[in-house]
Design brief:
The protein is 48% helix and 14% strand. It is of the alpha/beta class. The strands form 2 sheets. The protein has a 5-stranded mixed β-sheet, sandwiched between helices. A 4-stranded mixed β-sheet has the order 5-8-7-6. It is globular, with a radius of gyration of 19 Å.
């Protein structure tokens, strides 16, 4: 297998046709048989992979670059538009968070792992949004099936159903209700786990304004959470970040292994294997 073939498998599984700006192949490779993959893979993990004889290192989280800011804006505008939010309004709301991200990125030290991989001549690639899209679809589909036509579902039930997903069950961190409580009616449940990063408090408020009752996220900054809580409109459930990442990652790994490569995991990937209890 080549790095290009592996990337093609990942984006096809996600249902997209192009490699997103927050993913990509930093150092190309061929004749790949053994992969080391993790959520965050930096120079120490690259050195470990070289020492242990891996043909390729795959990271989930990308190193910080500004290439994805335009993609971030566009993908969230499209997602919000599908919910019924006008594109011009979505652009304005997302623009606030985009500016905040741009300011933070300006001082970032970028491409450390990429530079190390190039010096080592070690094949290296990143698969971020494809895995997140898969996670979003898996979690949304699971909850939709459980909810069905029941309009009286409460957050406590949503929490129970989330724990049926192996990665959440296996992680020592569990989904948490950040806004609302077990008895709160869920309303329309919307899972938002792709799009590079979160949309910001103003954009989230608009989700609730157009009919979303509960947002299921994989992370949200504390200051934004406080702002959303003050809005007093909808519920927020936050699922553990690495377990959420792992749902999509594990689906990709399964397809890669079907294609004939061996993948070992470290650095935050949670197993999707259901452990059997013994008496």
């Amino acid at each position: 297998m080549t790095t290009k073939q592996l990337m093609e498998i990942a984006i096809k599984l996600a249902g997209i046709t192009e490699v997103t700006p927050d993913s990509g192949i930093s150092v190309e490779g061929k004749n790949i048989k053994k992969i080391l993959m993790g959520v965050d893979m930096e120079t120490p993990e690259l050195l470990l992979a070289r020492q242990l004889g891996y043909d390729l290192v795959v990271a989930h989280h990308p190193e910080t670059t500004d290439d994805w800011l335009g993609y971030y804006e566009n993908i969230h505008i499209e997602k919000m538009y599908k919910l019924g939010i006008p594109k011009n309004k979505a652009q304005r709301l997302i623009g606030k968070k985009k500016k905040k991200l741009d300011i933070g990125l300006h001082a970032s030290n970028i491409a450390r792992a990429e530079d190390a991989a190039r010096l080592m001549k070690l094949p290296f690639m990143t698969v971020h949004t494809p895995a997140d899209i898969i996670t979003e679809k898996v979690v949304q589909s699971h909850l939709d099936k459980k909810i069905g036509k029941n309009e009286s579902v409460r957050l406590g039930e949503i929490m129970e159903w989330l724990l049926e997903i192996p990665e959440y069950k296996n992680d020592f961190k569990k989904p948490v209700i950040r806004i609302g409580n077990d008895k709160s009616y869920a309303g329309k449940v919307y899972v938002c786990m792709s799009g590079v990063t979160g949309q910001g408090a103003d954009a989230i408020k608009e989700h609730f304004e157009v009919g979303v009752g509960t947002l299921v996220l994989m992370h949200i900054p504390g200051d934004e959470l406080e702002e959303i809580e003050k809005q007093g409109i909808g519920n927020v459930i936050v699922c553990p970040h690495h377990a959420s990442d792992s749902i999509g990652i594990n689906k990709i790994i399964a397809e890669w292994e079907k294609a004939g490569v061996k993948v070992d995991t470290i650095s935050g990937i949670i197993s999707d294997k259901v452990s059997k209890k013994t008496n």
